[in-house]
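Collaborator request, handled under Task 6.
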Amino acid sequence: MNMKTAGPELLQENVGKLKSRMGTFYPGSHVIYRGCDLHTELQDMDWVELYMFGITGRRFSKEQLRLMHSIWTYTSYPDVRLWNNRVAALAGSSRSTGTLGMAAAMAVSEATIYGRGIDMRAFDFLIRTRKETEAGGDLAECIRLELDTHRSVAGYGRPLINGDERNQHMLALSKALKLDQGPYLQLAARIEETMLASRLRMKMNYAGLVAALIADIGLSPQEYYLYSFPAFLAGMPPCFIEASERPEGTLYPVPCADILYEGESPRAWPK
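Structure tokens returned to the collaborator:
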């Protein structure tokens, strides 16, 4: 290893220097955002368009932006029973702040099974499978290998029910926007057909559908991960607010009698 690339010399070269190709704030003057003046050149961007420009440095068509908006909208469930919304609501019930509640809820949204973790696995599976099948690989074999490796195929099946209420609406929108003919979406449909024809009989879920649509737009895995970050956010504030309006501590109280305890038997504590 070249020590200059990893040792004190590298640190010394960066003392007192902060270079950025992303942006700069000039107090009292202007702000540069990825080479553009934020308040003049980018002033007409909506928030999602700016967010995606910040992630990718790319401009997207109005159809692509509409799709990306709706992917978030269709995932904003204000149901306090959902794992991440429950964190936001418990913050409200314990009288924590909204910022802490939302931040904690967003952090647990990286869950491996339900959250960002499964999204990234679905995205990765589609990319790998397209490469393998275009090189002459067998689709059924790709699915079998994925099952052997992970005991599941990310983007297919669902813990609660085999199907996803969001898919029909997202497919209808992508068709209306003429964004339903990409190679990844076609591959995702072929995977579903293959799995339904086998003993697995698993339908595509929302993670698989969204991964295919976003891959067809051309986002990289890291860009997709960062794009996905706010997907659940709009469902969280209603849960926090409702819990805050109820008496403190009354959300999911657990009576001691309901706790299965197998530790030490009751002991007398000295006064």
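The cover message to the collaborator said: "The mean pLDDT is 92. Residues 143 and 149 are 10 Å apart (CA to CA). Please let us know whether this matches your experimental observations."
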